[in-house]
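Quick one, tokens below:
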């Protein structure tokens, strides 16, 4: 059957604000009973510690019926998040300066490697020649996100739109992306 994930990421958090923002969100989720305060291993894929669902986890989702969610892993270091990608669609990434969409993403492979190692890198736009930070490029359907803060919900029923919007407000109105998939 596999495991599903839904990740809400903060596209604007810097390495310095990520831990503070993460704490603010987790404190609220704990206060509302959506997750438990102590993150433990075994509730997410791999060894990442994750917050187990709380007694009111169903308040975060559209349809709780039959749901059996696992944990919420909170990432506060630079991380590459992705959505499971349907091969019928080509990846398109758009330059935030000129809006040009690129189908050939080979240009991104070295910058993605560099970002993975350091949390920083740029891509020169072939259309407008601007040097654009990798994290600022806009991927179709939130295919990829290069961020310093992400909340990964494992095997939760679909998160309610209102809940996701509230996370965005808690993150100071920062831009968010929503990445979903299956492993
Ligand atoms: Zn451009």
């Amino acid at each position: 059957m596999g495991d599903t994930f839904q990740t809400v990421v903060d596209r604007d958090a810097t390495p310095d604000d990520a831990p503070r923002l993460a704490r603010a969100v987790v404190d609220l989720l704990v206060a509302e009973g959506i997750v438990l305060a102590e993150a433990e291993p075994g509730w997410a894929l791999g060894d990442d510690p994750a917050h187990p669902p709380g007694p009111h986890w169903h308040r975060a989702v559209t349809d709780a019926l039959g749901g059996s969610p696992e944990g919420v892993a909170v990432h506060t270091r630079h991380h590459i998040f992705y959505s499971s990608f349907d091969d019928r669609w080509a990846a398109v990434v758009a330059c935030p300066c000129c809006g040009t969409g690129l189908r050939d993403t080979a240009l991104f492979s070295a910058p993605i490697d560099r970002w993975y190692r350091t949390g920083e890198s740029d891509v020169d736009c072939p259309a407008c020649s601007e040097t654009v930070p990798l994290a600022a490029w806009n991927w179709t359907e939130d295919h990829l996100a290069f961020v310093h803060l992400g909340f990964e919900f494992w095997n939760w029923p679909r998160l309610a739109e209102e809940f996701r919007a509230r996370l965005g407000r808690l993150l100071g109105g920062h831009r968010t992306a929503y990445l979903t998939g299956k492993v």
